[in-house]
Amino acid sequence: MEHNVSVGLDIGTTKIVAMIGRKNEYGKVEILGIGKSKSLGVHRGVVNNITQTIQSIQQAVQEAEAAADMKIDEVTVGIAGQHIRSLQHSDYITRSNSETVIDEDDIDRLINQVHKLVMLPGEEIIHVLPQEYKVDGQAEIKEPIGMYGGRLEANFHVVVGQVSSIRNIGRCVQSSGLNLEGITLEPLASANAVLSQEEKEAGVALIDIGGGTTDLAIFRDGIIRHTAVIPFGGNVITEDIKEGCSIIEKQAELLKIKFGSAWPGENKDNEIVSIPGLRGREPKEITLKNLSKIIHARVVEIVEQVYVEIKNYGHEEQKKKLIAGIVLTGGGSQLKHLKQLVEYITGMDTRIGYPNEHLAGDSDDDITSPLFATAVGLVLDGLKRQERKKVEQQEQVVDDIETPDEEEVKEKPIKERRSFLDKLTERVKDFLDNAE
After folding, report:
1. What phi, psi does 43 have (nearest 5°)?
2. CA angle in degrees (0–180, nearest 5) for 14-208-85
3. What distance in Å separates the CA atoms of residue 368 and residue 363, rounded to the nearest whole number?
4. pLDDT at position 370 over 60
């Protein structure tokens, strides 16, 4: 696969999307091809049928390859699902020599200590995100490198997930004939695609309503502060319509998309949709008012659960207020009047997030639909990862050529810390290679 092209693979509960993108000369991302297939082996973000998932992945990948007229061999894949949870944790290390400045190794030591936290069986730490540091009791330090101090402590946002679920996703990708380039947390990927830097600074909650799960990511001061996955999404709404109106799932899904609204007051009592009966049976008549009552009840439940998580983060404290409010994305965000309902329940400013923050100006409207927020985010993540690799390789070459004098050593730029997702990707790869 040619350089500076990256492929995002979003393995969702309702659909699997493969998206191929590359950076153009203006630093924006052009989408070269996109393929999507119905997701058959995934439930609430977790793979529960490997064979079906592999088939769906291959179908999506072939479609994307045909559209972009190129072969795909590496993908960046997203992990989400009901097994992901997050917690806050603070930890400290005591440095043996407080006369030297704090460096990368101290921070790595502190982060590795967090990894010793005891988890539930089968769970593993996926992501450790430092929130703020304290050096010798001085608080609110963003970057302690280069400072003097004996005791270094930090608050961490720790994301935990089930390792078997992550390995299963790796297995599906590998069995589809693809290599894992990287693994990313889906709420983070969606956030990269739809949020602007100003929003992340001001404080914003991103709610990604998918088919099987609703993901939440909260940013403040440019740093991710809280993540959560709520095990409900658009599918439970469809399920409710199916039960409530006694119709088949396909009809329920169409009804939801075409006529559904999250606000019952909008529909007049006499607005009726007629649905063809099954083979020789009478057609069914459904009032739009009833339809939106069913939808409303379930959406309120989802939004209230998300709002509980936003409150858990501490949105009501003055210091942690989310000034930019809420951004809704994902397929479920296209429900009519959802924005108004969310504003009504939470009292926070709300907008629908389209993934056009980093896309080239002439992108198709289809691609900038909230449906594809995660896929666009995964492409961005893959491109970023490639750039990092390139920088590391160049530094390697430079290191090999020169044997630096004392003076030059100090000038070397601080290398970017390898993220835990990179380490996780390597661990999953190793596991898969040795498991055969």
Report:
1. -130, 125
2. 95
3. 7
4. yes
d(CA 268, CA 259): 13
Could you read off the pLDDT of 78-127 as tens digits, one per residue? 988 888 888 889 999 999 998 999 999 999 999 989 988 888 898 988 88
3-class SS of residue 248: coil
Q: Examine the pLDDT at 267 and tell me if it is beyond 90.
A: no
CA dist 217 and 313 (Å) reads 10
The Cα–Cα gap between 363 and 7 comes to: 17
The CA radius of gyration of the chain, in Å to the nearest whole number, is 24
Contact 130, 419 (CB under 8 A): no
pLDDT at residue 363 is higher than 90: no
**3 pLDDT exceeds 80?**
no
Report residue 2: phi and psi, to 5°.
Answer: -70, 160
Q: Which residues contact 104 (CB under 8 A, 6 or more apart)?
A: 145, 414, 415, 417
- Strand 284-287 to strand 123-135: parallel, antiparallel, or no bridges (unpaired)? unpaired
Q: What is the mean pLDDT of the chain?
A: 89
Closest CA to 299 of 352, 271, 347, 340: 340
- pLDDT at residue 140 tops 80: yes
CA 306 to CA 312: how far, in whole Å? 10
Domains of the chain: 234-298 (3.30.420.40)
d(CA 57, CA 177): 10
86 membership: H or E segment, kind and range: strand 85-94
| Model pLDDT, residue 80 | 85
Work out the pLDDT band at 309, boundaries 50, 70, 90. very high
Report CA-CA distances (Å) from 372 to 10, 158, 194, 335, 407.
9, 27, 10, 15, 49
Per-residue pLDDT at 410: 44
Q: How far apart are CA 88 and CA 302, in angstroms?
A: 23
Nearest to 360 by CA among 2, 6, 70, 31: 31
CA distance 207 to 305: 11
DSSP string, 87-153: EEEEEEEE-S-TTSBP-HHHHHHHHHHHTTS---TTEEEEEEEEEEEEETTEEEES--TT-B-SEEE
SS3 of residue 214 by DSSP: strand
